[in-house]
Amino acid sequence: MIQLIWMSLQIKEENGFKYVEVGSGPIIMNLHGLFGALSNFKDVTDYFSKHYTVVIPILPLYSLELDKTSVTGMVDYVDAFIEYKGYKDVNLIGNSLGGHIALLYTLRKQEKVKSMTLTASSGLFESSLGDQYPRKSDKEYIKRKTAETFYNPALATDELVEEVYSIVNTREKAIRVIVIAKSAVRHNLRDELHQITIPCNLIWGMNDTITPPFVGEEFHKLLQNSELTLLDECGHAPMMELPQEFNDCMGRFLNKVYQSS
Question: What is the model's pTM?
Answer without folding.
Answer: 0.91
